[in-house]
Amino acid sequence: MAKKQSIDPFMEKLVSLCKRRGFIFQSSEIYGGLGSCWDYGPLGVELKNNVKRAWWEAMTHRRDDIEGLDAAILMHPKVWEASGHIAGFTDPLVDCKQCKHRFRADTIETEKCPDCGGELTEPRMFNLMFKTFMGPVEEESAVIYMRPETAQGIYVNFHNVLQPSRQKVPFGIAQIGKAFRNEITPGNFIFRTREFEQMEMQYFVNPAEDQKWFDYWKEQRWNWYLELGIRPEKLRWHEHGKGELAHYAKAAYDIEYEFSFGWKEIEGIHNRTDFDLTRHAEHSGKDMRYFDQEKNEKYLPYIIETSAGADRGTLVILADAYFEEEVKGETRVALRLSPKIAPIKAAVFPLVKKDGMPEVATKIYQDLKKHFKVFYDDGGAVGRRYRRMDEAGTPFCLTVDGQTLEDDTVTVRDRDSMEQTRHKIGELVELIGGKVG
Ligand code: ATP
User: Rounded to the nearest whole angstrom, what is the distance from the C-alpha of residue 366 to the centroid of ligand 1?
Assistant: First the structure.
């Protein structure tokens, strides 16, 4: 099932670090893997959860104007008729008659097969939605779809959220959840997969104010990546030109990141106008308008959408953090993750497994783990333990040594500078907690 994907040398190193340290590995690996499906291991799930938490906090907790939602993956099939996904969520495909490889017609520049030079078939349209059946009978009327985006769950629940929350336009609804697309050309590790997670927010505005809010959200979303420590020179805007712009959108900008395989979209900010609410009003027969009590008028709000991928975002974080340097003739590999999203915030080591050091180190570990994620390691030379934590992206390593037993201090080693400073055990929660919160 797993077609071998070609990846560049940088990605190869990143994929192998992710496997080695338990961030991410192939789905169903013992059966040879399942194409472009990936499982998040112990460190990966922490990292991705931290990315999602950072998004959720920025989008909901720290604001008064955005409500959260967790809608079902399976939705009424009419949702996808209304959204246009049944009719239009398609990619043009061509097959090579010789080597049988399949490509998205819009991504290849030659008329002959890029792999073997063979002749290509005419493009055929291929719907990207996964279909399944609801209930015991596999018949046409039982067909439902795995959602290809989370956004529709927000549109159809516009009034369900509006009423109990007593929000007023402008306000938003945010959601994190799985989406499924039967992509033709998945690849580049977790960049493009068939099952992925989205972090989407739909902001409902008065149509007269759409440009103001569009500009506002562009700035907010750009800054979010900077807050996570992404290097600004690796980010750029891509404006959708006339040919690219979805027919319903008034304006669309992508935030792109410079991966080793080129500049690629990581998030889209779209002015979707009143397209979605209009369509759902038409197809459901329900009034989707907003009632403005002050002006005593009803209207369909415009929607400014911010649509990011949690997996793609996690890849950006990993790729941006990956770092190599030569130290004493050896290559040191580290993930320079922001302490805010690092899976493990600090590791605690006894320098040696004797002289009472493990007892003191265990006590520190037990105390710190009430505050943040810590890891205890007494296996092997301390240098090797540091290296393992460098690869895990752990910002601080705390070592209990002979001096600790005399004056209650430990060494705190910084992942990036490798400098060590001594601190009182009693100050550790504040010292580290202040940086990881
Ligand atoms: P692309 O052109 O890369 O296929 P898109 O324009 O179809 O992306 P959107 O529909 O705007 O993407 O989805 C919003 C976000 O969801 C993307 O910016 C990306 O982060 C994420 N995303 C979309 N498709 C995938 C996928 N197949 N795998 C992982 N993440 C994805």
Answer: 41
Q: Is the CB of 95 under 6 A from ligand 1?
A: no
pLDDT of residue 319: 98
pLDDT tens digits for 48-59? 999 999 999 999
Pick the residue whose CA is nearest to atom 8 on ligand 1.
265
Q: What is the 3-state secondary structure (H, E, C) of the chain?
A: CCCCCCCCHHHHHHHHHHHHCCCEEECCHHHCCCCCCEEECHHHHHHHHHHHHHHHHHHHHCCCCEEEECCCCECCHHHHHHHCHHHHCEEEEEEECCCCCEEEHHHCCCCECCCCCCEECCCEEEECCCEEECCCCCCHHHEEEECCCCHHHHHHCHHHHHHHHCCCCCEEEEEEEEEECCCCCCECCCCECCEEEEEEEEEEECHHHHHHHHHHHHHHHHHHHHHCCCCHHHEEEEECCCCCCCCCCCEEEEEEEEECCEEEEEEEEEECCCHHHHHHHHHHCCCCCEEECCCCEEECCEEEEEEEEHHHHHHHHHHHHEEEEEECCEEEEEECCCCCCCCCCEEEEECCCCCCHHHHHHHHHHHHCCCCCEEECCCCCHHHHHHHHHHHCCCEEEEECHHHHHHCEEEEEECCCCCEEEEEHHHHHHHHHHHHC
Query: What architecture is the 9-76+150-318 domain classified under in CATH?
Result: 2-Layer Sandwich (3.30)
Q: Is residue 139 scored above 80 in pLDDT?
A: yes
Ligand 1 pocket residue status of 91, Cβ below 6 Å: no
Residue 2 pLDDT more than 60? no
Q: Tell whether domain 344-436 is in CATH 3.40.50.800.
A: yes
Question: Is residue 401 within 6 Å of ligand 1 at its C-beta?
Answer: no
Domain boundaries, the chain: 9-76+150-318, 344-436
User: What percentage of residues in the chain have a pLDDT greater than 90?
Assistant: 85
pLDDT confidence of residue 5: 60
